[in-house]
Amino acid sequence: MPSLGADMDEGTLLEWLVGPGDLVHKGDPVAVVETAKSTIEVECFETGTLTELLVAPGTTVPVGTPLALIGPTAEKAEERRPVRHVPKKGKPTAPAKPAAPPETAPVPVPPVPSAARQRAHIEAGPLVRHFAEQSGVALETLHGSGPGGRVTRADVQEAAAARAAPGPPRVRATPLARRLAAELGVDLTTVRGTGKESAVRAADVRRAAPGPAAPASPAPATPVRPSVARPSAARPSEDRAAAMRQAIAGLMSRANRDIPHYYLSTTVDMAAAMNWLHEHNRQSPVGERLLPVALLIKAAALAAREVPELNGFWTDDHFSAGEGVHLGVAVSLRGGGLVAPAMRHADTLALPQLMAALKDLVTRARTGRLRGSEVSDATITVTNLGEQGVETVFGVIYPPQVALVGFGRVVDRPCAVDGLLGVRPVVTATLSADHRATDGAVGARYLTAVARLLQNPEQL
Amino acid sequence: MGASGTEVSKTTYREAMREALREALRSDDRVFLMGEDVGRYGGCFGVSLGLLEEFGPERVRDTPLSESAFVGAGIGAALAGMRPVVEIMTVNFSLLALDQILNNAATLLHMSGGQLPVPLVIRMTTGAGRQLAAQHSHSLEGWYAHIPGIRVLAPATIEDARHMLAPALADPDPVLIFEHGSLYNASGELAPPTAPVDLDHAAIRRPGTDISLITYGGSLTKTLAAADELAAEDISAEVIDLRTLRPLDDAAITASVARTHRVVIIDEGWRTGSLAAEVSARIAEGSFYELDAPVERVCSAEVPMPYARRLEEAALPQTADIVAAAHRAVD
User: Fold this and answer.
1) DSSP string covering B99-159
2) Which of A176, A195, A203 sits opposite B290 (nearest CB)?
3) Does the active-site annotation cover B136?
4) Domains, chain B, ordered by start
5) Where is the Transketolase-like pyrimidine-binding domain (chain B) (predicted)?
């Protein structure tokens, strides 16, 4: 179970997208995992053939738990076989590469501590496995007493006996028979069933009832039924919303506690950008029109490339620069809550691509289908609250990132331009940055770059 | 009132239905009948034979072959204050009018905030058993029973054929009447009703104590025959005729299961998602602690209905199947 964000310590495997025997490549989505914040497609870390799924759908496991085992690819496995070479007609003899060094150990996805792995992979022969299955004993719960910690038949037998001991075995009985047995004070385990597969039926219970022969056709007019009403559990969606709130609470508290934020703000003249946008949109079909936010995001991404000190992570008391600009985009979810998936290499995307990527990201964030890399890779995050009508936003940094860029609404304001007063569209750009990693001068350089980039929209 | 005077008379299901129509046309000027071939031809199954001559073309109207149009016209007439009886030849053709039934007839009262009731009666033939092959042998009444806003009736006896129409016309909401094609020739004696006919209750067609056989429509005859066979083996079967498929008479089902603790549901529909499935689910929900055996179902094989007689018989619920299912539950 990969960590899909600084705030994730466990995840629920919802669905496998691959099965044993499937060939998987690095980067393929292999499973869908639900975290407290969203539902995410987990990408494979290795290339190979999936040999075993270790976690069943619906199971919640801690980060670091192996989800599946991947063996070497079938092709490579083939290469290790003794070569039985049948030359084919018309095909130049190109014997496969000389047997590559055999790849032996299965590669766990993702790499995990070996102790955890041992628990998941049990040494037990097929006979022992079969026996365990028959007696309903879960092998992973056993401590093997055989050589090399191997589970033996005796281990299973012991566990089966221990399991049977606590309660009497379940009796096959019809619902009516159970009700009657309770009413008549009959112990169902003492009744011989005459139904299919020896199921105990009402007549069997009546025969076994103590006292005067029970009436043949009985059923009191208003039978007292066992109460089956139970307090209804909270609905899953409510749970989910609550869990997300918890996760955000934890992460933001940590950010506020650990990160000494400093805040900068500047007002950016958007006249050039808005004019260019108007012109562009006038000539574009509806589907390709851009929103101001696309320009803002692109400027933020390019500025991050110019000021790499703000693009990366603060971990273990030092800053490490991100590889590429993966811009986290804060997306508010309809049911409440927030995710900030990464738009990978946002600085290299042309505006139409960036707009499409943004639409895609927002849609998938809201329908709960983000990829793992998108959730964990962001190197710097942008929050744009302009749509919500506010003019200025000072955000809280998403650890372990070191900067958060905020944009408000593009509004018309009176401005002094070239010594005259004019009405210009402006936007307030803000920066929350980690004072451990950078100082105000670096932040100022960043915001200045953003403002400058927005003056030449055609170059974005 | 026609044949339903005060004496017991010999009649058929078809004549009983015709008599019900005649009574409705006589007693209420707002009632009229329309459908394909209901007038000059006398109805595809002969139900309306003679009514055109008696009531004239204004009130017994032949329509073009367009179910959507004439069911829609019926809805319009009902909205305008008439009491139309629309005949659709067979249930498979009703699919062409499904939009009218589901999206208009069943919803207008709701969509208009209670202002537009649709007092419409739609009659149609349903069921297999007459070698009419895969396109004219459906039992889709279970589908219609899925739709809120309409009432679904399945008269299985001559009495119900004769007496269900009047309360159906009196119902302010759309009522669908499914007449099983194998029943039209059924003959028997029709006694004058001893109690007001209601559309809300299932009927116990035969009382019993060991097992409940729950059915409706065209399967009732086979189920009663199965009950006879079971009686010969000293198994006392109670036969419940649901009569109204929507809304279902839950109380009757619950009471019967409380008496017998075992159930076989007989439904000519396909098993998956059938009315039998709904009844079975309700028994599991409401009568779980009364059950002394798993609920058994006897339904049609999940195939397009074969034309060949033997194959068709094999695909449909038969008396022997019902007896076997009862044995599985009881033995």
Assistant:
1) HIIIIIITTHHHHTTTS-----EEEEEE---SS-TTTS----HHHHTT-TT-EEE---SHH
2) A176
3) yes
4) 9-190 (3.40.50.970), 203-330 (3.40.50.920)
5) 11-186
